[in-house]
Amino acid sequence: MQMDVDFLPLTALPASLHKATNKAWQRLSDALSQADNIASMTKQELPSSNWQALSAQRREALAKVLAISTFALDTLARYPHWLTELDIAGELDANLGREELAGWLNESLESAEDEEAMQRAIRRFRRKRMLGIIWRDLNRPEGHSMWDTAAAVSELAEMCLEAALTWLEQFYAPRWGLPAPRKDGSPQRLVILGMGKLGAGELNLSSDIDLIFAFPEKGETQGGRKPLAHQEYFTKLGQKLIAALDAMTADGFAFRVDMRLRPLGDGGPLVGSFAMLSSYYQDQGREWERYAMLKARPVAGDLDAGDELLAGLRPFVYRKYLDFGAIESLRELKAMINREVKRKGMQNNIKLGPGGIREVEFVVQAFQLIRGGRDTELQVTSLNTALKRLPDLGLLPQEVVDELLPDYAFLRDVEHAIQALEDRQTQTLPSDDVDRERVALAMGHEDWPGLIAQLDEVRERVRQHFDAVIADPEEDVDEANDDGQLGLAQWRLMWRGELDTEEAIAHLTEAGFNDPDKAFKRLQSLYHSRPVQSMQRIGFERLDALMPLLLDAVADNETPDIALIRVQPLIEAVLRRTAYLALLRENPQALEHLMHLCVASPWIAEQLARYPILLDELLTPDTLYTPADKARLADELRQTLNRLPEDDEEAQLEALRVFKHAQTLHVAASDVAGTRPLMKVSDYLTFIAEVILDAVLAMAWKHITRKHGVPEGLNTREAAFLIVGYGKLGGIELGYSSDLDLVFLHDSDGKGATDGPRPIDTPLFFTRLGQRIIHLLTAVTPAGSLYEVDMRLRPSGNSGLLVTSLAAFADYQRQNAWTWEHQALVRARVVAGSDALAEKFNQLRGDILAGKRNKAALREEVVKMRHKMRDHLGSKAASETFNVKHDAGGMVDIEFLCQYAVLALANQTPALLTYSDNIRILEVLTESGHLPAEESERLREAYLAYRSATHRMALTGEKALCDGDAFRTHRDVVTALWEHFLEPPTTHND
Question: Which end of the chain, C or N, has fewer beta carbons within 10 A?
Answer without folding.
Answer: C
